Amino acid sequence: MNSLPNCPKCNSEYTYEDGGFLICPECAHQWIAGLEDINDENENVVKDANGNILNDGDSVMIIKDLKVKGASSSLKKGTKVKNIRLVDGDHNIDCKIDGFGAMSLKSEFVKKV
Fold it and tell me: What is the per-residue pLDDT for 37?
């Protein structure tokens, strides 16, 4: 019999232990037994296009040309953006880009440098 607790996210009974973590194969949620509340606080994690976790103050690079509404030119692939700030919403990165000014970007179009 499985004496492990059900998944706190989807309530699946098929959890298993891997090292010090408990893992749910149905929703891929990972947690440490007894620390479910701590993981729930960090649900709004912002990840770049490669799956790296982004933090305030990080530097990122744009991975594809992006058209900018109201601008005559676009942001080119490889443009480095320093000192990002994470915000809630669809465009979850606020930053200043040289030559463009204040900008909001989606995290799926950047990679961490």
Answer: 44
